[in-house]
């Protein structure tokens, strides 16, 4: 019998209190790992409530802390706290992301900058910041997207950021190979999360028509691939973008 047992390991999942991030963090827990999850404290307090709910659900095996992925100082403090509590950091999943969809004709500089800063620049900053804390032989998994491959309508900022994440993944994999840190990306198609649910019905139907499996993915289906990439089963998988999209390629 083959199983994934991450007992004694510690996984960091950015933006892990909802959607794909929460599914991923929960799967790490089920595999025996401790988890550290950060979140952005929005003015309305929605994230804070979700974070409190997640912390109660996960218990002592989880650290849930406010930290903005765009801030080196906040992420450094977050990593320091995680290492002090659990003694090590083995895996980093760069999951945090935002959407600001609009056609190129209408897209503002502010909307472009916000998505690039959170979805691409922060992946670089967080990956760089974690290096002194990350164990040799660890893993970094970056969340890409089918949008970074196809260039979906209304997502010039998001598509550009996710394409950049895939390129950054290749660079990181080369530069961190000497420490035996494998770096890969996962590129989901449309997944049944709050972000996926925000797609207008007409667009959803059009997308479904292009997916051979005729359905969208579930958060656990994406999380299971991330778990694989952080296990010994993927020891020779490096510099790859794993596409999890039901066969959607056009």
Let me know the largest β-sheet: 7 strands, parallel
Order of helices and strands: EHEHEHEHEHHEHHHE
**Structural class by helix and strand composition:** alpha/beta
Shape: globular
CATH structural architecture? 3-Layer(aba) Sandwich
- Share of helix among residues? 40-55%
Number of helices: 9
Amount of beta strand: 15-25%
CATH class: Alpha Beta
Which helices and strands appear, and what pairs or packs with what?
Layout: E1 10-14, H1 19-30, E2 34-39, H2 46-58, E3 62-66, H3 72-86, E4 89-94, H4 109-130, E5 134-143, H5 147-150, H6 156-175, E6 182-188, H7 194-197, H8 201-208, H9 219-229, E7 241-244
Parallel strand pairs: 1-2, 1-4, 2-3, 4-5, 5-6, 6-7
Helix pairs in contact: 1-9, 3-4, 4-6
Characterise the protein shown here.
- This protein has 250 residues and is an alpha/beta fold.
- It has a single domain (10-243), classed as NAD(P)-binding Rossmann-like Domain (Rossmann fold).
- The chain contains 9 helices and 7 strands, in the order E-H-E-H-E-H-E-H-E-H-H-E-H-H-H-E.
- It has helices at residues 19-30, 46-58, 72-86, 109-130, 147-150, 156-175, 194-197, 201-208, 219-229; strands at residues 10-14, 34-39, 62-66, 89-94, 134-143, 182-188, 241-244.
- A 7-stranded parallel sheet has the order 3-2-1-4-5-6-7, sandwiched between helices.
- Strand 2 (34-39), helix 2 (46-58) and strand 3 form a beta-alpha-beta unit.
- Helix 1 packs across helix 9, helix 3 (72-86) runs parallel beside helix 4 (109-130) and helix 4 (109-130) runs parallel beside helix 6 (156-175).
- The mean pLDDT is 95.
């Amino acid at each position: 019998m083959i199983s994934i047992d991450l007992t004694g390991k510690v996984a960091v999942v950015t933006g892990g209190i909802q959607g794909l991030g929460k599914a991923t963090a929960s799967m790490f827990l089920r595999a025996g790992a401790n988890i550290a999850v950060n979140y952005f404290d929005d003015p309305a307090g929605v994230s804070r409530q979700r974070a409190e709910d997640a912390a109660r659900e996960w218990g002592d095996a989880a650290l849930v802390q406010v930290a903005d992925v765009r801030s080196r100082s906040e992420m450094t403090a977050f990593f320091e706290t995680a290492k002090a509590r659990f003694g090590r950091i083995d895996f980093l999943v760069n999951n945090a992301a935002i959407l600001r969809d609009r056609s190129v004709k209408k897209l503002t500089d502010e909307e472009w900058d916000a998505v690039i800063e959170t979805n691409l620049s922060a992946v670089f900053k967080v990956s760089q910041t974690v290096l002194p804390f990350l164990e040799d032989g660890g893993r970094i998994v970056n969340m890409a997207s089918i949008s970074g491959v196809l260039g979906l309508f209304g997502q010039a900022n998001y598509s550009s950021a996710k394409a950049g994440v895939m390129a950054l993944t290749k660079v990181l994999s080369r530069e961190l190979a000497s420490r035996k840190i494998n770096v890969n990306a996962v590129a989901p198609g449309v997944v049944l999360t709050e972000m996926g649910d925000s797609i207008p019905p007409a667009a959803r139907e059009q997308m479904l028509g292009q997916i051979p499996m005729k359905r969208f993915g579930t958060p656990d289906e994406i999380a299971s691939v991330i778990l694989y990439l952080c296990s010994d089963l993927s020891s020779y998988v490096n510099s790859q973008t794993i596409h999890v999209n039901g066969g959607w390629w056009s």
